[in-house]
Amino acid sequence: MMSRTVGTLFEAQRRLVAERRLSFDPAARKDALEALRRAILAHEGQIIAALAQDFGKPEAEVLLTEILPVLSEIRLAQRRVKAWARDRRVGVTLTTMGTSARIRREPRGVCLIIAPWNYPLNLALGPLVSCLAAGNSAIVKPSELTPATSAVIAKIIASAFDPDLVAVAEGGVETSTELLALPFDHIFFTGSPEVGRIVMTAAAKHLSTVTLELGGKSPVIVGPGADLAKAAEWITFGKLTNAGQTCIAPDHLFVHEDIRDAFLPLLRARIARVIDKGPMAGIISPRHAGRLETLLREAEAAGAKVTRERTGGEGSFAPALVSAITPEMRLDQEEIFGPILPVIPFRDLSAVLARINARPKPLALYVFEKDQAFIDQAIGSTSSGGVGVNLTVLHYSHEGLPFGGVNHSGHGAAHGEWGFLAFSHQRAILQNRFSPLGMIFPPWTGGKLRLIRLAKRLIGGGVSGKS
């Protein structure tokens, strides 16, 4: 936690926002992004060491899932921020002839970014890139569950920015509660749906806008025509990256009965190969590991069959495939958030889609199949934040796609221009040039009424309802 209170930081940032509304232009924003880029690279070794300390993330995973995504966001924003910030011209309508219309993308103001523990650097600094590109100031609240990474984030931001522009507020629930009591112009939260409700409730007190990146039980469908080897590779990648502690990780697996016996040995072999060839990230805490073990024990006691793969090393959690699960099991109800993968055989795709639609809308849906009609039916009959076809989790990395959930899995979108828009207000500006509308201003004479009726016919057409 910084020596200045969060209230003092907030007020200082609010004053600066008002002062620099015109001066923090795209060029200044690019400079701020460059300062962030340089600070990340200067602290790369500390980032890698901190994430290894917090929960055993291998260096390759840190580079691939924490550092590279943020650097990529910075690179894109630096190249595109001028175009993103430019006013958008809008054509006139019949009733607004003689005017000019434009949309100005303006900063929202002082923003709060609350980051989770599972990707603590990426999900703190990635939104910050969008926030700065849009011209805002920010207070960043890292997760207290990754204290080493939180400390490095504080160093990175302190080395790159004046606290009146960007500051870090470290601490636990008390700090989050204190921050959420302030009237931020926008709040960007990444975390669980349960905490998302708390954030949304707090934001409502000030009518602050929010972006909520949440989660849910992202299903995978493996159809009868899927490339089974590729499906095994992609599902393993999505499930074991960060030990399954990913909001868009495959949560459960629907496998067509015709290919189940051929597919499962491939999946198990791929999991074993990944474990044998390199280290896995650990589970964030003994409490979280205990929860996963409890889910397995409860499912097994209720009749599920659990197949554990050998562990990936000290501190890691042995991946498990689970069959014969039932809707009453917590494993089938809660987001798993770990390297446990229930496998559910199916014959009729419609039954699978009905089961998916009976639950809250997931953050991601994955479909493995060669038949386009099968793929189209799965996508067209469901709703989810995003879709991966013959791949998992990679859609997160496409900066031209919006990343976000729907309802239970999130509100709003992030990444690239979509992230820029999340932190921007779309201000409508209509300027009078030579509008003839004054011809029909009150008092309402018969001639003016005829002009209004003429306009109605031109716009609405059809037969007049006046008898």
From TrEMBL:
Keywords: NAD, Oxidoreductase. It comes from Falsigemmobacter intermedius. Belongs to the aldehyde dehydrogenase family. One of its GO terms (biological process) is aldehyde metabolic process. Residues 24-428 form the Aldehyde dehydrogenase domain. Gene3D superfamilies: Aldehyde Dehydrogenase, Chain A, domain 1, Aldehyde Dehydrogenase, Chain A, domain 2. The keyword Ribosomal protein does not apply. One of its GO terms (molecular function) is aldehyde dehydrogenase (NAD+) activity. The active site is at residues 213, 247. The keyword NAD applies. One of its GO terms (cellular component) is cytoplasm. InterPro entries: Ald_DH/histidinol_DH, Ald_DH_C, Ald_DH_CS_CYS, Ald_DH_CS_GLU, Ald_DH_N, Aldehyde_DH_dom, Aldehyde_DH_NAD(P). This is Aldehyde dehydrogenase. Coiled coil: none annotated.
